[in-house]
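Reviewer 2 asked us to include a model.

Predict the structure of this chain.
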Amino acid sequence: MNLLNIYVVLAWYEDADRKPNTTDRITNQILNAECVTEKLFELSQYQMSALHWNTTHFEKDFETVYMNAVESYKRISLSKDVNMHVPQAHMLKLKEFQKDNHFCLENFKDATLPASHAASLRESVTMHELEALDQHAKGVFSIKNYLGGEYHLTADEVYWEDGKLVIQESKNSSRKKFPSKNDIKDGLFKLILFANLTHVEVGKRTNVQFSVRLKLTGDFIGTLHLPNDRKNIDRFCIENQLTQTQQNTIELLNRESCENENLGVWITKYKYQQ
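Predicted model (structure tokens):
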């Protein structure tokens, strides 16, 4: 969020329902509206960067929000007869984030970064030597910014194309024309981070040339690469009998790829792979 200058508001679930036919899952979660409204009002008058807000907000409010969440989950567990994580486990985790019995952002960073890195490695199902990347190989990235922040992320696919590293997020739909709008937004969100990298290293190779690509597969005829001109876009839309809403999606994606130099979009037919 800091990298994209996005302001974070910490909150907790005030209520929820037990998910039908389960004993340990919840649904229909409702955030504490009073807390969210208060912070949104503060944000409406805030003049500084997201980094400054997020840092201050975490240092000042994290522990209070965390404790409210623990208490709220206890109430939900009892009132909805659903098994939640035990409060003792949450309190032990909070201890990891504290210094002298107070929340410490550095301790939080030290406690969560290794877990983030481990999660990115688990997500990377197929591992390849970086000097021999091929399609369908996941990539694991450690991204650092000029302020010393470190972020561990994965990309769905990384491979070499014409001597350039392609960092690709893939969203698929086996029955519909397009993946869901939320899936498309999720792919773009991560790719915007990758598109704004200023320096990429792969193994011993430095200053690697790269591009980022959003691959969307669905029930399509042919392939469309974005950015593209109006004539080719119209031809693709007519051939696939796209609705106005679907055409608008392509138009927005074309605009996004035009405004982000390193970003490309590839729309093609879904192919099932073992």
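The chain has two domains: 13-103, 128-269. Helices lie at 33-44, 50-79, 87-96, 105-123, 181-195, 230-239, 244-259. We have added this to the supplementary material.
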